[in-house]
Amino acid sequence: MTATRVDKPSVLIANRGEIALRAVEACRLLNIRSVAVFSTADRSMPHVMQADEAVCVGPPQSTKSYLNQDALLHVAQQRGCSFIYPGYGFLAENADFAERCAQMGLVFVGPSANAIRVMGDKARARRAAMEAGMPVVPGSTEAFSDLSSAQAEAGKIGYPLLLKASAGGGGRGMRVVEGAESFEAMFLQASTEAKEAFGNAEVYLERYFSRVRHIEVQIFGDRYNRVMHLGERDCTVQRRHQKLVEESPAVALTADERKKLHTWSVSLAEAVEYEGAGTVEFIFDEESREAFFIEMNTRIQVEHPVTEVRVGANLVAEQLRVAMGQALSLPEEKTWHAVHAIEFRINAEDPAAGFMPRPGTVAKWEVPTGSGIRMDTFASVGTAIPPFYDSMVGKLIIYDEARDQAIEKAQQVLDQIQIEGIPTSTPFHQALVGSLAFRENRIYTRWVEQEFLLSPQG
Amino acid sequence: MALTFKDVAEILRIIDASNLEEVELEAQGIRVSVRRGSGTMPRKEGSVTTENAAKNEPSGENAESSPAGAVAANEGLAKPDSSDDSGGQGLEVRAPMVGTFYHAASPDKPPFVEVGQRVAIGDPLCLIEVMKLYTTIEASVEGVVHQVCVKNGDLVDFDALLFVILPD
């Protein structure tokens, strides 16, 4: 029938957890009306309670609630929303959804469907990166679903190899192949996993570097063709391609090396007339001092707070401002804070049991407060962590004037954190900040699995 | 010439009477796409409400929520819906999807049901619309409509209480 009439801009927040809560807060800051959506599993989550309005869009399964495009678009229309905030995960990098929003006259808070499409397609993204002047990881220019042609290509690239799902992300559909003898088994695994996770069995082949860092550059664009970077992040602490800890700045790189990555990233974003928040990811080989483009994520990322505390900005609020047609209002590099920031992902996982996710109800949630300590979370005492979604329950961000001091502070804070009712990744982080290799920054992307977890004291 | 609500209802009636599982209709820039049962609610085996009827035990949520008729509970608050005031005697009919609630087949038609009215199994109770896709919610029991919990044209949450029927 008739849609709700509203006198101020309204945003439908198509996400859950801490990022939905950040969006609600940003709306309040900008005097925007917030309409939250939730599944029946999230009925009493804080983003639901704190939003101006909330609508239950479906049962717990994401496909029927947070990924249910028809339901979300219908609710947006009926509740008088002109903006849809996708956050990260769910529909954040779904070009078709962005396009449907545009067709209905709704503003998708993010880049254009075209930019999402180009960067979401590994082959097109590689081409765009090469055109922007950056080196790309040696690999296949096309994706394979057929074993024999993939095998022939593998021979040309050489081992070790990385298999990556064409439509993938988040580590699913990825396999490392050490030599020709294990290619067939790994290819079939990656291809099957890709088909199950993304509905597309096609897999790319890339040269695999065994000792590299993961470095990424935060960029931001507005619709007046201005793109700027907000520095880089070092996300080398990973387990099975899942980031666990992120830092900014990336002190393992020289100022010149960082500057080169910033410039490349801005050029790439400019080439696709990028609007909103995005991240350009690289691997960096410390031995040869070479960086290679891996991909661009067309969304706000989980680890954006380390950038926020370093540059002194609210990136979620900036996403909304840019979507409303405002020009970028982010601080220039010369005014950034001279701090080192580290984010620790607090997941409802048991590090002692192979990082097994364990849902449950939070019985105690005590996190120290103070200068240089920030906790982004939706959890508090009594919060039931549902088993249906991501296991991340919070992000602890610690910052101080330099990396050593930030690590010292992190150690104190991690030792004082008391979370009960659910196991968390806190013990992993405690051991990490105590290890010499992490303190001396002698790490690489497979370090956690190949060394640290085998001998945490090292 | 644009399709009216009446036209859509007529098209739905024709499709309903057929054995077709899926119909796509395109004319003068208008596309109507109808999928029987939306993949989750097999209509052949029983009405849309069958699944929800099993959840008829009094839940803590309902006991705590606002008194009968307080439809505004859907508005912004996390409360699931208005409560069933039948003292546990009634069968709750809940929304199988989020969408816009219509009490009649078209604006100029009388409502499918009103309080006090008798219904038989399979009688239409209301329509729920999501992005121009209409789903008919049917009675799964014989009985008397005890409560109509939402207003025509309201956006209803998934699992919101729509009707309470006192079974015979």
Give structural notes.
The complex is a heterodimer of chains A (458) and B (168). Chain A has 458 residues and is α+β, with helices and mostly antiparallel strands. Chain A has 3 domains: 100 residues, Rossmann fold (3-Layer(aba) Sandwich); 70 residues, ATP-grasp fold, A domain (Dna Ligase, domain 1, 2-Layer Sandwich), CATH 3.30.1490.20; 240 residues, ATP-grasp fold, B domain (D-amino Acid Aminotransferase, Chain A, domain 1), CATH 3.30.470. Chain A is built from 15 helices and 22 strands. In chain A, the strands form 6 sheets. An 8-stranded antiparallel β-sheet of chain A has the order 13-12-9-10-11-14-21-19. A 5-stranded parallel β-sheet of chain A has the order 3-2-1-4-5. Chain A has a 3-stranded antiparallel β-sheet with strand order 7-6-8, with helices on one face. The termini of chain A are far apart. The mean pLDDT of chain A is 94. Chain B is α+β, with helices and mostly antiparallel strands and 168 residues long. Chain B has 3 helices and 10 strands; from the N terminus they run H-E-E-H-H-E-E-E-E-E-E-E-E. A 4-stranded antiparallel β-sheet of chain B has the order 3-10-8-5, with no helix packed on it. The longest helix of chain B has 13 residues. The radius of gyration of chain B is 16 Å and the shape is elongated. Chains A and B meet through strand 3 and helix 3 of A and strand 4 of B.
